[in-house]
Model the fold of this input.
Amino acid sequence: MEKPNTSYIDQLSVDDIAFKNKFINLIKKELTVEIDSYKKAISNKEYLKASQLVHRLKHKVSILGLKKGYNLALDFENELKENTNSFASKEKFDKMLNKMVKFLECL
Done:
């Protein structure tokens, strides 16, 4: 599986360390809130709401350089919208979220 990185953030911030740190802190804060909301929606079987949260999360996935992860998030978002209850991508998606959180904790 891909590893998260800060390449995109580095490009955005050029050499502005203060901007980079603010951006990373914003991502950390939003990611935590969105993951908590996503997990709650899944446990409450609110799959349309969960798909909307996955849609928001996939942007964080992209920001952290996970190209394959973005496609995984897109697939999972569609599975949730279709509400087939199979959710074949859920386990991989959840593992990716955990990797993202652990990566951000180290920054």
Notes: The chain has a mean pLDDT of 95.
